[in-house]
């Protein structure tokens, strides 16, 4: 029979735990060899601990000890309590153990009816199997994984109502570490809230937001919708908020991509107008295929646009869409160019002069655009393919 058990006394910050574990290690070494047993740990080591006033406590429970308590529960020798369940079954238990394990059970036992020397108590609201796992845990902290999994929600409630924090920790831990499913998450969330388990509740909400469409069509959701419409509203709002945050992030990423493309167009424009691209061939020839790729990703597209611009016969005010695009790129270049006197990019000086007359509003608009284009490149970090060729003009 598989039995999981929790050492309910181990505390991370408890120096006695470390000492006990060390002691255990030493004894297992000595039993396997001729190494003499180490001397007793000096008692002054306890005094050096963080809690000098606390008495040293042994906190490692041996399996044999748990087995003894498990046996006491299962065999019920000397039992003096009948626990009656809702489905008219009963369990035998020891009032002293129940009282020590749960202050609530202690009170119930004190007020119980005694018949033929046996105290009779009731644990209402849950069926026999859950109570069996619950009481067994009170004795030995042992449980069968299958039964625990099947009854974990009832056990969470029992541990909360009967004030058994060790069991509550186990239930919460098991749910958080993998027993939470799309089917049970809504029930778990409601129980986590009423049983004061804020982290579990937070994890549930996060799961609902992540798998909203699936979870909002489960049985659990339908029941909750009728019983607790405020919770449904809250979960919908959480989902909407998270979703709009996601959309906003996508929008920003998309925007950044556009600015980065503009930056690359500016670099390619300089490269075409100053050096001329050797890869895609001279202006008067057909554009070569990209057998050898030019280092400037925007080069080929821009070269085609420049060629179109110089040959366009479309006679519409302001030019065709392609020409308009070219004008905008030239103007953006000019806004970013720091050497208009020696610059070979067409219209660079023309736009620089035009800038002298532009309104403050236009100036601010251009400055914002330039800073976004430059920042998109800078955001790639110092190890991006090429160093920035532009400096910001103001
Ligand atoms: Zn090129
Ligand atoms: Zn055109
Ligand atoms: Zn220029």
TrEMBL record:
Q: Name one GO biological process term.
A: response to salicylic acid
Chain intervals for the UniProt region annotation (Disordered): 28-54
Return the InterPro entries for the record. BT1/2/3/4/5, BTB/POZ_dom, SKP1/BTB/POZ_sf, TAZ_dom_sf, Znf_TAZ
Q: Superkingdom of this entry's organism?
A: Eukaryota
SUPFAM superfamilies named in the record: POZ domain, TAZ domain
What is a GO molecular function of this protein? calmodulin binding
Q: What are the record keywords, sorted?
A: Metal-binding, Ubl conjugation pathway, Zinc, Zinc-finger
DNA damage in keyword set: no
BTB domain boundaries: 79-147
SMART domains per the UniProt record, alphabetical: BTB (SM00225), ZnF_TAZ (SM00551)
Q: Chloroplast: is it a keyword of this entry?
A: no
Residues of the TAZ-type domain: 253-351
Please state the pathway this protein functions in, per its UniProt record: Protein modification; protein ubiquitination
Indicate what this protein is called per its UniProt record: BTB/POZ and TAZ domain-containing protein 3-like
């Amino acid at each position: 029979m598989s039995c999981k058990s929790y050492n309910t006394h181990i505390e991370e910050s408890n120096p006695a735990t470390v000492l006990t574990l060390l002691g255990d290690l030493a004894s297992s070494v000595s039993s396997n060899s001729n190494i003499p047993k180490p001397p007793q740990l000096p008692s002054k080591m306890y005094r050096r601990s963080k809690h000098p006033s606390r008495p040293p406590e042994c906190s490692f429970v041996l399996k044999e000890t748990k087995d003894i308590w498990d046996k006491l529960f299962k065999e019920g020798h000397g039992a003096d309590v009948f626990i009656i369940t809702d489905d008219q079954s009963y369990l035998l238990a020891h009032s002293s153990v129940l009282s020590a394990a749960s202050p609530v059970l202690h009170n119930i036992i004190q007020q119980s009816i005694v018949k033929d020397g046996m105290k009779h108590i009731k644990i209402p609201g849950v069926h026999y199997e859950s109570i069996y796992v619950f009481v067994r845990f009170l004795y030995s902290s042992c449980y069968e994984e299958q039964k625990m999994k099947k009854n974990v929600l009832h056990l969470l409630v029992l541990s909360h109502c009967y004030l058994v924090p060790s069991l509550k920790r186990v239930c919460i831990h098991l749910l958080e570490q993998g027993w939470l499913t799309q089917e049970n998450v809504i029930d778990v969330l409601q129980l986590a809230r009423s049983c004061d388990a804020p982290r579990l509740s937070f994890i549930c909400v996060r799961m609902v937001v992540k798998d909203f469409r699936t979870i909002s069509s489960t049985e659990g959701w339908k029941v909750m919708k009728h019983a607790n419409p405020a919770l449904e509203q809250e979960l919908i709002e959480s989902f909407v908020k998270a979703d709009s945050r996601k959309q906003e992030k996508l929008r920003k990423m998309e925007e950044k991509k556009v600015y980065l493309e503009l930056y690359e167009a500016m670099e390619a424009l300089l490269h075409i107008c100053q050096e001329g691209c050797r890869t895609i061939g001279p202006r008067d020839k057909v554009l070569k295929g990209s057998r050898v790729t030019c280092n400037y990703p925007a080069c080929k597209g821009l070269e085609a646009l420049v060629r179109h611009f110089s040959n366009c016969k479309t006679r519409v005010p302001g030019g065709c869409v392609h020409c308009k695009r070219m004008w905008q790129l030239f103007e953006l270049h000019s806004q970013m160019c720091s050497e208009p006197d020696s610059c070979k990019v067409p219209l660079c000086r023309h736009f620089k002069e035009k800038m002298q007359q532009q309104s403050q509003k236009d100036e601010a608009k251009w400055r914002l655009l330039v800073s976004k284009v430059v920042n998109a490149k800078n955001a790639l970090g110092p190890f991006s393919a090429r160093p920035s060729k532009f400096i910001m003009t103001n």
